[in-house]
Amino acid sequence: MDFSYSPKVENLRAELMRFFDASLYPNEAVYQQQVRRNRAAGNAWVPVQVIEDLKPLARERGLWNLFLPKSSRAPQGLSNLEYAPLCEIMGRVMWAPEVFNCSAPDTGNMETLERYGSDAQKDRWLEPLLAGDIRSAFLMTEPAVASSDATNIQCSVRRDGDDYVINGRKWFASGAGDPRCALYIVMGKTDPAAPTHQQQSMVLVPANTPGIEVIRPLPVFGYDDAPHGHMEIELREVRVPVGNLLLGEGRGFEIAQGRLGPGRIHHCMRTIGVAERALELLCKRVQSREAFGKRIADHSVWHERIAEARCMIEQARLLTLKAAYLMDTVGNKVARAEIAMIKVVAPNMACQIIDWAIQAHGGAGVTEDFPLAGLYAGIRTLRIADGPDEVHRGTIARLELAKHAIRLEQ
Amino acid sequence: MDFSYSPKVENLRAELMRFFDASLYPNEAVYQQQVRRNRAAGNAWVPVQVIEDLKPLARERGLWNLFLPKSSRAPQGLSNLEYAPLCEIMGRVMWAPEVFNCSAPDTGNMETLERYGSDAQKDRWLEPLLAGDIRSAFLMTEPAVASSDATNIQCSVRRDGDDYVINGRKWFASGAGDPRCALYIVMGKTDPAAPTHQQQSMVLVPANTPGIEVIRPLPVFGYDDAPHGHMEIELREVRVPVGNLLLGEGRGFEIAQGRLGPGRIHHCMRTIGVAERALELLCKRVQSREAFGKRIADHSVWHERIAEARCMIEQARLLTLKAAYLMDTVGNKVARAEIAMIKVVAPNMACQIIDWAIQAHGGAGVTEDFPLAGLYAGIRTLRIADGPDEVHRGTIARLELAKHAIRLEQ
Amino acid sequence: MDFSYSPKVENLRAELMRFFDASLYPNEAVYQQQVRRNRAAGNAWVPVQVIEDLKPLARERGLWNLFLPKSSRAPQGLSNLEYAPLCEIMGRVMWAPEVFNCSAPDTGNMETLERYGSDAQKDRWLEPLLAGDIRSAFLMTEPAVASSDATNIQCSVRRDGDDYVINGRKWFASGAGDPRCALYIVMGKTDPAAPTHQQQSMVLVPANTPGIEVIRPLPVFGYDDAPHGHMEIELREVRVPVGNLLLGEGRGFEIAQGRLGPGRIHHCMRTIGVAERALELLCKRVQSREAFGKRIADHSVWHERIAEARCMIEQARLLTLKAAYLMDTVGNKVARAEIAMIKVVAPNMACQIIDWAIQAHGGAGVTEDFPLAGLYAGIRTLRIADGPDEVHRGTIARLELAKHAIRLEQ
Amino acid sequence: MDFSYSPKVENLRAELMRFFDASLYPNEAVYQQQVRRNRAAGNAWVPVQVIEDLKPLARERGLWNLFLPKSSRAPQGLSNLEYAPLCEIMGRVMWAPEVFNCSAPDTGNMETLERYGSDAQKDRWLEPLLAGDIRSAFLMTEPAVASSDATNIQCSVRRDGDDYVINGRKWFASGAGDPRCALYIVMGKTDPAAPTHQQQSMVLVPANTPGIEVIRPLPVFGYDDAPHGHMEIELREVRVPVGNLLLGEGRGFEIAQGRLGPGRIHHCMRTIGVAERALELLCKRVQSREAFGKRIADHSVWHERIAEARCMIEQARLLTLKAAYLMDTVGNKVARAEIAMIKVVAPNMACQIIDWAIQAHGGAGVTEDFPLAGLYAGIRTLRIADGPDEVHRGTIARLELAKHAIRLEQ
């Protein structure tokens, strides 16, 4: 369990940090302005120019598709452990991952295609995703049921001749606001009569298929996150060829399991970067202002918070590295306790630290002048997305209790 | 210290609750739609029709200016203790207080005028405010300094002949987004050489005075709260007659002290209403959905949270009533420990309960489909506005330590 | 809901505080010495002289049996609301309540006898208890089962002719260590076949009945609390006349319900006194020592804790007063939510404040030089005794959910 | 930063766990009985037989002095990283470390002698300590001052001819209760006029030197921890030869710094073992009892706690391993942030988990029937010993702020 960074990773980290200093941080305000300008011009749902400008630069420097595990199409792929420190850095600016073609949900979708897709499916969808030419969304959660229990999912995927016909309403389809979003991976029931965990399947649905209606962008706190967006989508008699099925009927849970591990750990890695950013902003702010006769940094209540923040970040990072190591070495299934742990730990940790940072900034903290409120909204939502805290804690507890199983009848 | 509701208050409560059932809750979606429609039409900064429609109904039922303490212009005024349960109800819908002409910052501004204004000032500004014809803003906080320590405030108010000339930048001027906002109460330095607490004064500034520029609405967690708004405002060589001074030069702190007590307790009363609303939504949600084979309400983790929420609300309400009682009987100055306590307790309590309620709602909790995320943004900001938690805790601690003063030299 | 103190209560408070200043605080070290001396002499399980010396003084000043509600035998009895501020003061010194014949579990036992006892039972047991001549214990909890669910209680109470024959093992029989403890009130099953809540009965058992074996004093965080003690007791074929039954067969739950309300609120009242004492000690300590160039009281981290402590105490006290008021006016059954709330709130609040006070005292805080560690042990145990937090939170949540009941089938 | 266990460590772990299963757990009750028997016989301050019986067995199996870093006298010494998982296991039973000659404060004292002692000092004291023939204490903390700031320490060490003459009162001299405790390492001022951090020195003082009076064992919560004990000790004109000085006059701080790093991390390692034990006990308990119709383990509130506990332990362990790794590779000084972090994290984490475990055990949790209350007392004290949380948080915060230093004058 060696967490040291290899020379290859050290080089990528250095390159990435240089890139952030040179091209990301200086463009944070630019990004905001461009979105604002688009919105004022009547449509915020268009690609943001600064991202498009930065993508070729990132690609040039070898900072492209870093998330991708070693595979036939990515012979130089990184392990989860190698990717972790890089992904963490990308988390420091909310829109940064897209610059490196490493943004959710595309990374999870690309991994899903790589693992479970047929060659034809890969050619059709994986290639343009890897090239950053199109984007994708993942349609799982539904507004009408407690989707924290995925067996509740109701969307119908009915076989009809050589087609599947899909009916259902999905929401929180992140990224579906982008006009380049061309692919939906949809989870739904192919066989309501099958055993609970074999009812669901996953189907590839082109975003322009007739019957699809994007109802609205869901605001997260007050942010619509345009042009990315979290969309509510109605599917009415949406028809796709049976070849669009992933892996096999009834294997939706299996794919979800395989997809969610990497998706979750990427979120956690980025979340650690968010927390580092928030702590950095906090430390700068309390040193730059005075109140009641001394720097705010000299009021010891802030020492408590800064110290707690540092302790929390260090611990969450190490646990994330352990989870990454286990995923690399013994697989997502054996690592499921650790994946569940970081999924609980990282967003809760970051929410607390961002909250302290907001408090340190006074009124400025809740505005757009600092990225804090926006980060809070995103990370708070992460305590619900990809399984709420309660479900992951349940998983951890079940595994823990099993270690000390007591049979009452003894 | 009798917290029972008098028959008069009981009647008003009943009337108010009937009004909410009949006219407020059913119009929550309408309000959203109207703001959205205004925004889509190019300007969200106009009065919302549903509020204008409801105002006369509220007035008709005697639900108007309830916040106003007994005085020459309000012979039927309520005490703080009497107003508390009514204000709490108004807090249940974010935009409701305006319907009853009881919204911040107008209520605090009206109290300030009533207490410290000359007759001419009252005629000019208090009357139209009491009638709901105009609105007002309070310009104290500044972006450039830690305004938590009000001695930091830099805005210059320079005497020049029969005028004051004002220069400074203010922000978080809540309500200044409304086109009917006609009056700014501005805090600034008349004498930088005076003893620290006698440097500041308060001046009445008509919103249409030359030299005033409203820079932008400050978003709060992504919400611009149009048409109310929290504005950043630049004042450049803004000139008002000396008769616009409130109370006297150098008495800004004294007024702030007098104003903030009632302003703070009103916020706390409303915040308790917010918490009740959040808990109610939580209880309904967990009973309406199932996961893992039983109602979410039957998972005991939710019992812990519901019980804690109920304990927290009950306690915060009682402490608020005590503070109100003390303000009524011994005055804001003697009650300053209790005012500081509720200012810390109420928003922290409500933030926690709203957070649990959001979690109970899953993804829906962060969207506009429920009022929770919006309420969170508002209440979280309240932990900073009108003095951040840290400052109020400092006040409480200082008073507590003084009770057990130890002199080291003994 | 008037929480003001009546002149009668004000007089008693003043008298009680004078008594504490004159006779309690100065004797805290004496009490410790006497117990230590008794222990060194081979038996700590004998009455402590200082208590015996103070009792007549307290009685003389009218500070005797203050807990007792108005009744035929206590025509001047106090209401719960009146007793609350007095009981709180008594809580400031752990052994103080006995000086006023107001200590647990005697007060709860006396109330039980007063409410549910026959005249003969009252003559035999209530009179000497009121006189402070004997003491009593309450035998409910059992080591073998989760007694948090009282239906689990297994102790057998078998009718045999004119006797009941009792077999069972009880523990945490507080006060049973005292050689003057003459009466046990025992809960056990008279009818295992009856409906769940009618299986249990309560029986008066003289402590010297054959078949009773006091196994051991249970240490609480290392304290045996001699000579009071929390005893484990075995009952083997213990035989008492049927006349010793309280109220009726199968009515044990009913009595427990009636007994536990007052018992719990008394604990909470005292707990508030404990918290006040801890905060007072904390404030004195941080003002009396310096570290890193300034008084510990000037490190703002302590301001946060002191302020939080004051907020927590004020709120818990008000909630306790509300519960007392409701018990007085609408009865223990209607007040059960509030009783459950304070039973959770008060000990958790006090544990946190004592913990901060310990931290403020450094090493001294965990020793016998200050009462803090001992108080922590006692109050921590109170989070379990008389129903653990989890059970009370369950009660509160059930009542809350019922207010917003949703029927899924609608 | 490779945290994998080497084969050597794996073998030692396996051996140690076998030893615990065979000889430690089965003797926990025996230990309690023997102490109780000694106490009943009039003197608890004598070695406990079961420890003496187990020591040769441990030594035989190579489980002796494992704490000792590689050095001339310990050619097979382990690194901190290697020792961590072994020390953790030893923490599972409070008295276990002595069996392996790995108990505090002897380990810290032995390291101090090894690092800073002269050959003569090593021969005289280190050898018998390594052999387990004598024990030692560390006399630093003083009752009269806030010892959290070590510059406050007042004990006088006055040069007088070829002797030092020591006067002062020390307390919390752990282990000084043991009759075999032969050596005190005493910190005191040799030069009150020197710069603050060069006033203090460390001196080796034989426990039987005239002028030493052991005043009393300090109870920790209610535990005296006999025969180990935490003693208050008066030194009056205690005279030792100048050769007993460690390292040099005025170098006390330097030694303290060097000593406390390893001492602290050992405490943290053991604390993780304590937390694991508590969680194990919790998991067993909630599976062994029923309440309200189901196993306590099936109430989801316990899932939350178990999951949080597992997350907290994993993270604290990883951070401890990181600190150990840094101490091994870059030294205690560079690792001081990480050492401070684990010193805060580990005891707070363990206190919370033990508290949950106590709650899960009901009344039994606070008694001697389970090790929980005793462990709580010990670990709670650790939040004060070797520097209170506040001081360590201050260190962490200072280092963090320095990373983002802002100069206000810019």
Task: Give a structural overview.
The structure is a homotetramer of 410-residue chains. Chain A is α+β, with helices and mostly antiparallel strands and 410 residues long. The first copy, chain A, has 3 domains: 124 residues, Acyl-CoA dehydrogenase/oxidase, N-terminal domain (Butyryl-Coa Dehydrogenase, subunit A, domain 1, Orthogonal Bundle), CATH 1.10.540.10; 115 residues, Butyryl-CoA Dehydrogenase, subunit A, domain 2 (Beta Barrel); 151 residues, Butyryl-CoA Dehydrogenase, subunit A, domain 3. In chain A, the strands form 3 sheets. A 4-stranded antiparallel sheet of chain A has the order 2-3-7-6, with no helix packed on it. In chain A, helix 9 packs antiparallel against helix 10 and helix 10 packs antiparallel against helix 11. The longest helix of chain A has 37 residues. Chain A is globular. The relative contact order of chain A is 0.10. The mean pLDDT of chain A is 95. Chains in contact: A-B, A-C, A-D, B-C, B-D, C-D. At the A-D interface, helix 8, helix 9, helix 10 and helix 12 of A face helix 8, helix 9, helix 10 and helix 12 of D. Chains A, B, C, D: Its cofactor is FAD. Chains A, B, C, D: Keywords: FAD, Flavoprotein, Oxidoreductase. Chains A, B, C, D: This is Acyl-CoA dehydrogenase.
